[in-house]
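haha ok so turns out i had the wrong file open the whole time. this is the CORRECT one, sorry everyone. sequence first:
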Amino acid sequence: MTYKVTFLPMNITVEVDPEKFPHQEDGQPGSILDIALGNNISLQHNCGGKCACTTCHVIVKEGMENLSKMEEDEEDRLDTAEGLTLHSRLGCQAVVSGDVVVEIPPSGRGGFVAPSH
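then structure:
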């Protein structure tokens, strides 16, 4: 069964086939980071997706129930993230199992600037 992951502010939606994980070697297989990198979407990950920094911090706009449960290591690390919200996750740790919409904050975009309207 496939599902969709939408990345904001780029407004890019990718169809995900969980049979094809991992896409990359960074982050948990099937994580938001894995899906982003496997689809050429820039998401910073200075530690290589090892839950040792917060550069892959994302804000979940929809589908929080379709992400893996947050482990204590991720919770502790997120406490230091810039722009932390109640819907924050680390892209390297949040494994996707259904449709999700995530926003990549400016600090994680790697130079991407959303077009102004």
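Residues 57 and 90 are 4 Å apart (CA to CA).
again sry for the mixup
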